[in-house]
Write a structure and sequence with these properties.
- The complex is a heterodimer of chains A (about 350) and B (about 280).
- Chain A is built from twelve helices and 14 strands.
- Chain A starts with 6 loop residues before the first strand and ends in a 7-residue tail after the last strand.
- Chain A is α/β, with parallel strands linked by helices and about 350 residues long.
- In chain A, the strands form three sheets. Chain A has an eight-stranded mixed β-sheet, sandwiched between helices. Chain A has a four-stranded antiparallel β-sheet with strand order 2-1-4-5, with helices on one face. Chain A has a two-stranded antiparallel ribbon with strand order 13-14.
- In chain A, helix 4 packs across helix 5 and helix 5 packs across helix 7.
- Chain B is built from ten helices and ten strands.
- In chain B, the strands form two sheets. A six-stranded mixed β-sheet of chain B has the order 6-7-8-3-9-10, with helices on both faces.
- In chain B, helix 6 links the parallel strand 7 and strand 8.
- In chain B, helix 5 runs parallel beside helix 6.
- The chains are: A alpha/beta (about 350), B alpha/beta (about 280).
- Chains A and B meet through helix 8, helix 9, helix 10 and helix 11 of A and helix 5, helix 6, helix 7, helix 8 and helix 9 of B.
Chain lengths: ~350, ~280
């Protein structure tokens, strides 16, 4: 597996010193990514999903941050790489797309000039006209109509969906092997979201582009991901293939997320199944399992943190952090015949 | 819901245009943005009407124009049979008791310098409903009603999570026992696990207080869950309106179909099946 691994993340830990005290934003995240694979990292605010993604490319480096563990891209270590080496990796080997494309483009430069500059910064031998041609080609490949004219537009002249396409074009300018997309469709309308997801799927297929997709939306995950990490309170609580997570979820938090979705293809329930309480503060994490205070299935052993382990004999790569026995889980996660989290006892 | 009863709210041919101005010294109006472009609908007492649409569809402007928070360009808004479009602020004030708004962003809609008790108690104080110890008692009752604790009375907004702040916004909205609440994207800024809590709270309050809702949102899944009827907005107009399940299961207008087809299916097998029938890329 590691022979063909594109990215290998081992026991990644990111701590910050804040006014409120020390907090562990990411606490021991590990995963492998093979070429062409789409990994979704799912979680709510404070789950550590975005900090994980940003740390992979060195964006969380600061005097207040303590970063431990290992991130290897094609075998070379990024955590210890100096800033200059990391800058070469960003863009050239890893492209990045953020939630809000308006903040990622400089508003006073034309779109094309910004893409051309990104290319020339990494490949100084490229002439301006070559860079411009390449930028037109890229904008065209992500579905911008009249790319040759639109290249001279300013970012504000593009719609939200077009800006996100242009952002993806810029991320792909140097033909990276890996794209990190942090909530790439959250700010977009659903009809535009569908187009961007289709674009990401096409790039993934045509270019064998591996993708790490950060999202809170399980609908988006179901549309594009191959594998899923579910994060909660800075830790991975479950990891598996797309089908394992949706059809045989092992962690009660995952049950709760799946159960609270509104499904257009089903009859609507009387009440929307809910998870009680709120995500924990990273400054004040509960002892043991962080989901314990919100979990109706909590029992004595939960005050000790369960390891992220394979607990199913027939699915060695499906890992979770819950002490319940698998058979017990399969019974408890059914709420009126559907996967969900039962309401806590009154 | 009682469909036969006289409507609580009746909107007819409502129009809101915003002028587009150009010019350095003298503003010239060069164009109009037709945010709401001739919209009619009615809502029965105790009913929930979902207004769904994408950004720029005019749904938020419509919600605000109904409450006279923006002044409509033309058209009629009748509340309990009485025309309220174009009423002065002063004439509107007593009517404000009956119609309230819940906003999207619970971070921006609460004054950060005021204590929770002041924020929730303000409508009661302004309308002269209660003061002193009685005011405090009523506000604490409201806080409990929305799932907060009476002790939260003296705290500030920044001490609360997004979901709790939305509960505070809801407590403020129900303080005067209104008849109508316009909720503008009330859950879209919240974490997934919190959305269901707020949706269920709004449903409980509707039952208990007999509230009528106009629920404005872009997420048709949530809108379908909460609404009796849905009106789909596109480019300032209602393109389709009908019972919630009918609109979602047998959409008639091309735009509604397009909107529904774009909603991701949170089920990998069905998502794969749909991709194969629709074709990909």
């Amino acid at each position: 597996m590691s022979a063909e691994s594109l990215l290998s993340v081992r026991d990644l830990r990111v701590g910050f010193v804040t006014e409120g005290g020390r907090l562990q934003a990411v606490d021991g995240v590990s995963f492998e990514l093979t070429p062409g694979e789409v990994l979704a990292i799912v979680g709510e605010s404070g789950s550590g999903k975005s900090v994980t993604a940003q740390t992979l490319i060195g964006l969380t480096r600061s005097p207040n941050a303590r970063i431990e563990g290992s991130v290897r891209l094609r075998g070379s270590e990024l955590i210890e790489a100096d800033d200059e080496a990391l800058r070469k990796v960003r863009g050239a080997q890893i492209g990045m797309v953020f939630q809000d494309p308006m903040t990622s483009f400089n508003p006073v430069y034309r779109i094309g000039a910004q893409i051309t500059e990104a290319i020339r910064a990494h490949r100084p031998q490229t002439s301006k006209s070559q860079g411009r041609e390449r930028a037109i080609e890229l904008l065209d490949s992500v579905g911008i109509p009249n790319a040759a004219q639109r290249i001279d537009d300013y970012p504000h002249e593009f719609s939200g969906g077009m800006r996100q396409r242009a952002m993806i074009a810029m991320a792909l300018a140097l033909e990276p092997d890996l794209l990190i997309a942090d909530e790439p469709t959250t700010a977009l309308d659903v009809t535009v979201q569908a187009q961007i997801l289709a674009l990401l799927a096409r790039l993934n297929r045509e270019r064998n582009l591996a993708t790490i997709l950060i999202t809170h939306d399980l609908g988006v995950v179901a549309e594009v991901a191959d594998r899923v990490l579910v994060m909660y309170g800075g830790r991975v609580v479950e990891r598996g293939t797309l089908d394992e997570i949706f059809y045989d979820p092992q962690h009660p938090y995952t049950w709760g997320l799946l159960g609270s979705l509104t499904r257009m293809d089903r009859d609507r329930p009387e009440r929307l199944p809910q998870i009680s309480g709120a995500p924990p503060s990273l400054l004040d994490l509960p002892q043991g399992c962080s989901f314990r205070p919100r979990c109706p299935h909590e029992f004595g052993r939960c005050s000790q943190l369960p390891g992220l382990e394979a607990r199913l004999a027939d699915a060695p790569s499906h890992l979770d952090r819950c002490w319940l026995e698998p058979e017990e889980k399969r019974q408890r996660r059914l709420v009126e015949g559907e996967i969900g989290l039962e309401a806590p006892a009154p | 819901m009682n469909a036969g009863a006289a409507p609580l709210l009746e909107v007819t041919d409502l129009v809101k245009h915003f002028p587009v101005k150009r010019g350095l010294l003298i503003d010239r109006t060069v164009d109009q943005i037709r945010a709401v472009d001739g919209v009619s609908f009615s809502v029965a007492p105790g009913e929930t009407l979902g207004l769904v649409g994408e950004s720029g569809s005019g749904k938020s402007t419509l919600g605000r124009a109904v409450l006279q928070l923006v002044k409509p360009t033309s058209g009629s808004v009748r509340f309990e049979g009485r025309e309220i479009a174009g009423l002065s602020r002063r004439t509107m004030r007593p009517l404000r008791r009956d119609m309230q708004m819940v906003f999207q962003d619970p971070y921006a809609s609460l004054n950060p310098r005021k204590r929770i008790g002041q924020i929730v108690g303000e409508p009661l104080r302004l309308q002269g409903v209660a003061k002193g110890g009685e005011l405090r008692r009523q506000v604490q009752g409201l806080l409990e009603r929305v799932g907060l604790a009476p002790e939260h009375y003296d705290r500030f907004p920044h001490e609360f999570s997004g979901g709790q702040r939305q509960r505070i916004g809801i407590a403020r909205a129900i303080a005067l026992r209104p008849k109508l609440i316009v909720a503008d994207e009330p859950v879209s800024a919240l974490d997934v696990s919190i959305r269901a809590q707020i949706v269920n709270l709004l449903a409980d309050l509707q039952q208990e207080l007999g509230l009528t809702y106009v629920f404005v949102a872009h997420d048709i899944g949530i809108v379908r869950h909460v609404s009796d009827r849905i009106a789909v907005m596109h480019e300032g107009k209602i393109v389709e309106e009908g019972p919630a399940d009918r609109v979602c299961e047998q959409p008639r207008h091309a735009y509604t179909k397009q909107l529904l087809a774009a909603v991701p299916i949170p089920d990998p097998r069905e998502a794969r099946a749909r991709r194969q029938t629709v074709g990909s890329g």
